[in-house]
Each structure stands twice: as structure tokens, then as C-alpha cells.
Design brief:
This protein is mainly alpha-helical and 393 residues long. It has 14 helices and 2 strands.
């Protein structure tokens, strides 16, 4: 016999399993809970660091799939969000160029599987080691595909960061000492998304007018308005920066300037020496202390250098729990891939002599899947507002 449940109090809904699940579901993004743009860049850098440790095409394809899924799930309708496809095309173009150079110029890879032979151009004796044309083996083509796929994956990870991070908010979050350099970097990062948006807009306009959008003539007719728009945007950005007092600095004592320079340069040298120590087999003992000390010195120098920058921040972005999860997922992917290099180097770097098929290692693949976490914890982009219905006459 089942015990009857007590009725819920008036005005108070009874808790259900659905409400408990919805409480942990990612909310709709707004100004208060949006992921910090620096977190998206840390996540993408983690994926890129993992891609730089392997030439396995299966793992590289998995990294590209993880980045593409997160971009499709969490990108907005902003102009910079359309840059991901452009970076994918750029990666494929780089891969094709790498293979083409391997075919035309050869590669220092011995091979036994001859595919075809090209006419070889004779070169003088001082150009030994370089050839144009000649025999093309399957081993050198596979090696070129592996190397080109790694570089293409790095570009795609950068494109994912461009599509997800707001460049204006990223500029606002930089330390005061890096404000001038940050402006130049952010303007450079917004060039590609705005260029893609301009090309898409002009191609749509030509298509609506019944004109062709392919071929060299169409590209030339589209390129001139794109260049004109880029120049107009540059003039507008320069006028806006001048109106906001860009470049105005405060006077600081000479002792503070000298201390800032010493701390910053010493910190950067410590970071370089510590990184070299961690990468070298004989420098593991001093690598980590130098890296930590260099980072601390550089942070102190940047904090002191921020005193000369006179600017305020309106509603600064917070690095909340969801931003930490996004950044931590990228760092986890990079750490697991670095750890996998020590115990499964053959699976991460498949050999081409002799020519063997690559295999998908289990634990590195599971570590790459950790990069999918932002697709579930990051706030969902707000849907675009629906157009107002037209009134009937």
C-alpha cells in the first residue's frame, strides 16, 4: 500500500526532477553571466597546444571536430562569429599548399612506394639537397599531409577563438600596461571577421542583382569595395580613439619607471629560460622555479606599468565559475596530451617509414573530448529578436 503524498502548499510549486535538471542547465547568456573572452582564448590555446604535440590525423580531426561543435553550439550572430568558416578554408588551403610543395620540391623522406615521376629540373652543384620535380613517393605525401594537418588544426583553433570571443571585451580586460599593444592586436584580430562579413554582404548583393559571384572578374569587382570599406573603418577607428583620448598617459616617478622596466624584462627572460628548461631533458630541475619566478616578476611589472595609463572601466567583465570551467577544459586537454607524449609517443607521432595506418589512442582521444565541456556549461546565446509583424492595411 502506497502512502499518499501531502498536497503542496498554496502558491509554492512542488519540486520535481525536471526543475532540478533545469537548475543545472546552462542559462541564456546576458551581460552578467557571459563567459569571459580571455577564457575562450585560453580554451582555444589549450586545444592548439594539444594539436602541436601530435601529427596523428585522427587526433587532429577529433580536435577540429571538438572546436567546431563548441563554435556551432555557443557562437552568436556577431560579425566576428562568422570567421570560423574562413579559418577552416584557410587551413585547407595551407594543407593543399604543403602537399603541393612536397610534390614539386620533394622531402627528405626515403620511400619505397613510388606513385609517379615528374620532370626534374637540373640544378647546379651548390644547390645540393634541393630538387624540383623527380620521383614522388607515398611516404613523402603522407608526411606532408601530417605536417599540413597539424598547421591547419592550429589555424582552426585560432578561428574558434575569434568566433567565440568578443574582441572589444577582450581589449577592455587587458592590463593597463598592455593597453596600447592590446589595441593593435584587437584591431588586427577584427580584420579577418570584418573582411569575411564584407565579402559575404557584397556577394549577396551581387547575387540579388543577378550578377556572377565566381571567377576572377567577380573577385576583382568585390575586392575594391572591400578595400574601400576597410579604409573607411580604419579612419572611423582612428577618429574614435582620438576622441576618447587614446595615448594620454599620467606622469610617474622615474624610480617607478625603472623598476617597471627591470621587473618586466627580468620576468620575460625568466619565462623564456623556464620554458626552455621544461622542454629540455636536462633542465627540468630549474625550469619550473624560473618559470614561476618569471611570471610573478612580469605580473608585478605589468601592474606597476598600469599606473601610467589613465583610463577607467565601465562594468568590467568577471571571470566567473563558468569561465574557469571553459579555460580549465582547454588547459586539461593540453596537459593530458603532454602527459600522453611520455607514454604513447608512437601513437601520437605515427611513422611513415615503413608506411603504416594511424591508430586512435584511447586516453589521448578521451582527453581531447574534455574540450567539449564549454558546449554544456557556457551560457546559451540569446536568440535574435523576431521581426515585428507588418500591419495589414
Amino acid at each position: 500500500m502506497t502512502r499518499p503524498t501531502a498536497p503542496a502548499a498554496p502558491g509554492r510549486p512542488r519540486p520535481t526532477a525536471v526543475s532540478a535538471v533545469s537548475r543545472w542547465r546552462a542559462p541564456v547568456a546576458d551581460r552578467a553571466n557571459a563567459v569571459h573572452p580571455g577564457a575562450w582564448w585560453l580554451w582555444a590555446i589549450g586545444l592548439a597546444a594539444a594539436a602541436s604535440r601530435t601529427t596523428n590525423p585522427l587526433l587532429l580531426g577529433l580536435i577540429v571536430g571538438v572546436a567546431g561543435y563548441v563554435v556551432a553550439a555557443r557562437r552568436t550572430d556577431a560579425p566576428w562569429a562568422r570567421a570560423y568558416i574562413a579559418f577552416v578554408k584557410l587551413g585547407l588551403f595551407v594543407l593543399a599548399i604543403r602537399v603541393l610543395f612536397s610534390v614539386l620540391l620533394g622531402a627528405p623522406i626515403p620511400g619505397t612506394h613510388l606513385l609517379f615521376t615528374l620532370p626534374e629540373v637540373p640544378l647546379p652543384d651548390w644547390a645540393q639537397g634541393i630538387r624540383i620535380g623527380g620521383r614522388v613517393h607515398a611516404e613523402q605525401l603522407v608526411f606532408a599531409v601530417y605536417q599540413g594537418a597539424k598547421l591547419a588544426t592550429l589555424l582552426i583553433c585560432v578561428g574558434a577563438a575569434n568566433a567565440l570571443a568578443n574582441p572589444a571585451r577582450l581589449l577592455k580586460s587587458l592590463p593597463g600596461a598592455l593597453y596600447e599593444a592590446g589595441v593593435a592586436v584587437v584591431v588586427a584580430m577584427t580584420f579577418a571577421p570584418n573582411l569575411v562579413a564584407d565579402v559575404a554582404r557584397l556577394r549577396t548583393a551581387r547575387r540579388l542583382r543577378g550578377r556572377s559571384t565566381g571567377g576572377l572578374r567577380a573577385m576583382a569587382q568585390i575586392g575594391l569595395p572591400v578595400l574601400e570599406g576597410a579604409l573607411e573603418r580604419s579612419v572611423a577607428v582612428a577618429a574614435s580613439m582620438d576622441a576618447r583620448g587614446y595615448g594620454r598617459t599620467a606622469s610617474v616617478p622615474p624610480a617607478v619607471r625603472h623598476t617597471t622596466t627591470a621587473l618586466t624584462l627580468g620576468g620575460l627572460l625568466g619565462v623564456c629560460a623556464g620554458t626552455y628548461g621544461l622542454l629540455a631533458a636536462e633542465g627540468a630541475a630549474y625550469g619550473m622555479p624560473l618559470l614561476v619566478g618569471g611570471l610573478a616578476s612580469a605580473v608585478a611589472g605589468l601592474r606597476l606599468g598600469g599606473r601610467r595609463t589613465v583610463r577607467t572601466r565601465y562594468r568590467p567583465d568577471r571571470f566567473g565559475a563558468r569561465s574557469w570551467l571553459v579555460a580549465g577544459s582547454g588547459a586539461g586537454v593540453a596537459a593530458l596530451m603532454v602527459w600522453a607524449v611520455s607514454y604513447a609517443p608512437g601513437a601520437l607521432e605515427p611513422g611513415v617509414v615503413p608506411l603504416t595506418a594511424p591508430t586512435l589512442p584511447l586516453w589521448p582521444a578521451a582527453g581531447v573530448l574534455l574540450g567539449l565541456l564549454p558546449a554544456f556549461v557556457a551560457p546559451v546565446p540569446a536568440p535574435a529578436p523576431a521581426p515585428a509583424p507588418e500591419e495589414s492595411p
